[in-house]
Amino acid sequence: MIFDSIRSKSSYTIRINTSSRILTLYKSGIPIKKYGVAVGKPSTPTPKGKFYIINKIINPGGPFGARWLGLNIRGYGIHGTNNPSSIGKSISNGCIRMFNRDVIELSKMVPIGTPVDII
């Protein structure tokens, strides 16, 4: 499958801990950066599991801030926010929110196919 070959070329992985609200970026298995994030509220929790980035959108508009990194679970992604005070809280509809400066930085580093482990 083409997607598997794209995925295998990424030396980056992302782990999102919904309890601590921390996204950790790894390169070749070594943590290189940590970001505070917002996660889903109790009524719309962030899904847990192993996913992959399937698309990247610059300036998606609306509440999605400066970047969108879509996951291979319909309707969910890692994105910026037009509400920076939400970072560090359980407040989203299930997506992972980041400060716009952080999601821009992350988006520049990780390719489509990057594994995302949400715990």
From TrEMBL:
Pfam families: YkuD
A Gene Ontology biological process term: peptidoglycan-protein cross-linking
GO molecular function terms listed in the Swiss-Prot or TrEMBL record: glycosyltransferase activity; peptidoglycan L,D-transpeptidase activity
Protein name in the entry: Putative L,D-transpeptidase YkuD
Domain L,D-TPase catalytic: 12-119
Family: Belongs to the YkuD family.
Lineage, broadest ranks: Bacteria, Bacillati, Bacillota, Clostridia, Eubacteriales
Keyword Nucleotidyltransferase: no
Gene behind the chain: ykuD_1
CDD domains, alphabetized: YkuD_like (cd16913)
UniProt pathway annotation: Cell wall biogenesis; peptidoglycan biosynthesis
Cellular component terms per the entry's GO annotation: extracellular region
EC numbers, comma separated: 2.-.-.-
Sorted UniProt keywords: Cell shape, Cell wall biogenesis/degradation, Glycosyltransferase, Hydrolase, Peptidoglycan synthesis, Transferase
Catalytic residues (UniProt): 79 (proton donor/acceptor), 95 (nucleophile)
